[in-house]
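Z., the sequence and structure:
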Amino acid sequence: MQHRISSGGLVIVDKRILLVRHFIEGKYDFWVPPGGGLEKKESILEGAVREVREETGLLVEPVKPVYIEQFYQPDLQHIKTWVLCRYISGEISTSAPEATREHIVEASFLGESEIKAIKKPVFPVVLNDPFWQDLEEGFPQLKYLGNREMEFY
């Protein structure tokens, strides 16, 4: 079995979180914060910053890890750390080669009601509810989100 370590950036501006939409006709269509596998000697903080830049064009600064998520495929065990990030600068763009290679077709800052209205899967699932309470409380502790089967691969 293979193992993968990744990180993602939770970028919040005015109580709206940055999400990207991954889409391949007939295969998958879902929203998730920017993120991906770590490279070489990269830390989870560095990985989150790089992934946000590659997938959305935005420059961010890592604040702290807030969630650890575990999921699996038939031959892969995956651990992802979600890092709270502070927006620094830039305008959203999904035209970078890294974004198009991952079939990212759209990116946007979305609020709680907008996320709940999306008729497509949104990951991590914590964004559908407890996230908003954690945001209100300032993410007081690192939380484990559990182990789930990966729906798209």
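Strands lie at 2-13, 16-24, 28-32, 35-37, 59-73, 76-89, 104-110, 143-149. The two ends are 16 Å apart (CA to CA).

Let me know what you think.
H.
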